[in-house]
Amino acid sequence: MATIKDVARIANVSVTTVSATLSGSAPVSETLQKRVWDAVRAANYQPDPVAQNLRRGVSTTIGLIVPDIATPWSAHLARAMQKALSQRGFNMLFASNEDDPDREMNEIALMTAHRVAGLIIAPTSLGDKYAERLVAAVTTPAVLVDRVVAPDVFDAVADDNELGAQLLTHYLLRLGHRDIAFLSGRRGISASDERFDAFRAAMAGQGVPVREDLMCRSIFRHEHAYAEVQTLMTNAAPPTAIMCISIAQLLGTMAGLKNMGLRVPEDVSVISFDDFHPAVGWQPSITALTQDTQELSAQAAALLLARLGRGANEPVQPPQIVRIKPRLCVRESCRSLLQG
After folding, report:
1. In this structure, are 286 and 173 located in the same domain?
2. Nearest-angstrom CA–CA distance, 333 and 328
3. Domain hosting residue 218, numbered range
4. Which among 28, 184, 271, 314 is least surrounded, fewest beta carbons within 10 Å?
5. Which residues contact 13 (CB under 8 A, 6 or more apart)?
6. Are 141 and 261 found together in one domain?
7. In this structure, are 283 and 182 located in the same domain?
8. What's the pTM value of the predicted model, to 2 decimals?
9. Rounded to an integer, what distance in angstroms lies between the CA atom of residue 226 and that of residue 110?
């Protein structure tokens, strides 16, 4: 692989002249510039972007870290974030940690060592003293997405889970459902806790009591939902509707109901916070919230770039939490219990 010394030798100039030509850090005559660029092409020299950015004191690379790229949400986010950053003149470095907080901290350290300009993190939120670990690990400007952690330290962009729960709950109530099962995720994760609390608040706001025997916590894997819905549906008074907060839950719910020979929506209605595949394209198609990853990505990029663009003499602004409003997409998975 050619080096800057090879370019200097071919152009018959100093390494300093080559560096100044490539970086634009000092004036170089047109004649010498032409010799340098001719030598670059002759040597097939590829400048090291990390080294260039170190010399310039800037970077045009942003790191994106997600818990699991295999999930539809993460894949949609990665594509939308790359587009949002590219439109603003930045490249994206990507990492996925399979929901392992230790790997996540290592990825943060590696990206920081590669001198990324900033980080956008969909935090795992797992493990003891997670918030303290994240704060200690992040030493470059960062914005969190999807989950809120240490809101006094980090900017965050997340779904408006309160509005989402209201949209889903009010829709089911309008159809006459009162016995609604709620499958929640891990405790201590902001998105899961917010959705669970907002569902209960939405029910209370309409004067409808929550059936505690239908409230299911820590259902965050396909197999958890698969088993839980079969337990729910053997209840002496089974739910008429089941609300899921993730695709993993939805997959398990539909598989569990099918295993029991139950039909959606004829025997039980199903509704979901998560609208990514396979919510679309199933039979029946699933009534769900549409989450705008394009807007989430644009807002996260804007927040991070505002941090990066702050002047040395400008005051540091307090962290912001931006909420992205979801939309309810009514499809085929919920039936009305009202007569006539």
Report:
1. yes
2. 13
3. 161-290
4. 314
5. 32, 35, 36
6. no
7. yes
8. 0.82
9. 38
